[in-house]
Design brief:
With 134 residues, the chain is mostly helical. It has six helices and five strands; from the N terminus they run αααββαβββαα. Strand 1 and strand 2 form a beta hairpin.
Length: 134
């Protein structure tokens, strides 16, 4: 027999799976409270493009994060010789790209596809190659 906590955990898991199937963001009271005092959510509301209350999960919004947010601005460069993006001078192996993707998903753009973040990193790295430091 399941305990009350186990039943509650199963119900929460089922609700999350249903939410994912319908591609709707999780809405809980604690999430709503967190968004009001979470600096990343405030930044996202001020800097990203939105439709129907949700941030657009496209290259343009990923580019805005990489171009505008202090944690990412100017950090990436593209190296034509190795055909890879560099993060502060280090080649971005797959795990590093995935780490940046997870960071962007967790902080700014939940559910943005990995391939969209990879494309934005490539464009951003190329743009940063043409910008001369001041």
């Amino acid at each position: 027999m399941l305990s009350e906590k186990q039943v509650e955990a199963v119900e929460q898991t089922a609700a999350e799976l249903n939410r994912r199937r319908t591609q709707k963001p999780a809405v809980t009271q604690s999430a709503a409270q967190k968004s009001d005092d979470n600096p990343d959510r405030v930044w996202a509301k001020q800097n990203l493009r939105w439709r129907d209350g949700f941030p657009l999960l496209d290259i343009a919004n990923a580019m805005r994060v990489l171009d505008r947010h202090e944690d990412f601005k100017g950090r990436f460069r593209y190296n034509d010789d190795v055909d890879k993006v560099l993060d502060k001078g280090s080649i971005m192996l797959d795990w590093r790209v995935l780490e940046v993707c997870a960071d962007i998903q967790e902080r700014f753009l939940p559910n943005i596809p990995e391939n969209v973040v990879r494309a934005a990193l490539t464009v951003n790295g190329n743009r940063n190659n043409t910008i001369k430091p001041s």
